[in-house]
Amino acid sequence: MNSSYTLHSWLIRIDWSLSGWHAGRVEISVITHNRPDSLARLFSSLSGALYFGDRLNLRINIEQGADERTHQLVEDFLWNHGSVFVHHRVVRGGLLPAVVESWYPHSDDEYGILLEDDVELSPLFYAWAKFAILRYRYGKRRNESSKKMFGVSLYQQKSMELRMEGRQPFHPRQVFAAAGLPFTTSPYLSPIPCSWGAVYFPEHWREFHEYLDSRLLQTKKKLDEEEDIVPDVRSSRWTKSWKKFFIELSYLRGYVMLYPNLDDFLSFSTNHLEYGSHVRERSRMKQELFKVPLMQLEQASELNADLPAFEALPVLNLTGSVTDLMQLMEQGERRSRLLAN
Fold this sequence. Notes:
8-stranded mixed β-sheet
């Protein structure tokens, strides 16, 4: 079937009366250093995406010491969907501040899509992000429980990275089937923040800044016997990752992120596992652990704008087992009380 016909058929079936279409504003933030080929690939995927006439401002964050070609790519990049702001560090920050300081919301109706330069996007990434924001932030399915959602992943996990025994293969549909859930193909909620293409919500990102400010001050004291905030997960041993601290926050607060759950790990972003702060070895086997197929325009019919009610979404814990939101909240409250004593 002609791909343009497939896309047109999908577009006219979308409920364009979705509540609050223009209520939220999405900003895109790109983080880059010395990977010009990767950055060029990301820019190309950004240029090829559908934005439905929306205005999205673009912020490009360049680390100190970035090479000349990276600077030239940024200078030459044409963005027709909003304004462009370029931020260049004069003191090397490293990956944690590069990501955490790459975006900060101006209001509770501003959402940040954070993209490191080794990410590539599906042309439908914004459609998935937009539908999720509308459904769970502005639509009839919004409720008190949905305030626990801190963002929307563009990437579909196919390995579970936090188990103490090491990274393990992960397939949500198999997990849901084994648990006897009736809808194994549903998107799901997880406390794990995604670093390979994701939307972050304003209140939670501001809270993360506050938490991180306090937490890093505590770390500087160099306490000899500092207790792990989150017990029995590998992230407690990470020393340079912003995700370690966001995992702490999500665990203590019972926060969750929405993840896609499509056939064959079809996703709205993928990671190319380029050499960098956290990647020292890049074998083909290791790349296969992370790389996922991107949804193309001719596959648009697989993207359903009518997402499930928030309370109907399956919930996983940090190690990939089925749980529910109440258990996550109670677990975090217990841990907070224990740490306070």
